[in-house]
Amino acid sequence: QVQLVESGGGLVQAGDSLRLSCAATGSTFSAYAMGWFRQAPGKEREFVGGISLTGISVFYTNSIKGRFTISRADTQNTLYLQMNNLKPDDTAIYYCNAVAGTQTIVSWGQGTQVTVSS
Questions:
Q1: How large is the C-alpha radius of gyration of the chain?
Q2: Cβ distance 60 to 48 under 8 Å?
Q3: Taking the C-alpha atoms of 107, 55, 20 and 104 in order, what is their torsion angle to the nearest 10 degrees?
Q4: Cβ of 63: how many Cβ atoms within 10 Å?
């Protein structure tokens, strides 16, 4: 079973950048497609993008397309989310998870808080 630990969040201003990390332990990270999710205050958790287990295919929802980049480093068992040109609407707790289609596979980590001020 994979355990996930997200990090890299913080308080930034609109237009700034952050890079989030998702460190995986306990299993073979490279065997999983991975996704990033976020939960804004008062809203349900939503999927924002994912990367195939090979890293060749990457998908972004319209909310982050063109601003965020998902990548993975299998030798380090780590998933990344490079976030550029951050907007106040990006304020949320960000989570990662292993995914199979539309399903998440492992228990959620604690997430990392991103707060973007205007």
A1: 13
A2: yes
A3: -20
A4: 14
Express each pLDDT in 47-99 by its tens digit. 999 999 999 999 999 999 999 999 999 999 999 999 999 999 999 999 999 99
Residue 20 has pLDDT above 90, yes or no: yes
Q: Give residue 46's Cα distance to chain centre.
A: 11
Q: Which residue has the tokens 């205007």?
A: 118
Burial class (CB in 10 A: 0-12, 13-18, 19+), 53: middle
DSSP 39-101: E-TTS--EEEEEE-TTSS-EEE-TTTTTTEEEEEEGGGTEEEEEE-S--GGG-EEEEEEEEET
* 3-state SS class at 32: coil
DSSP 26: S
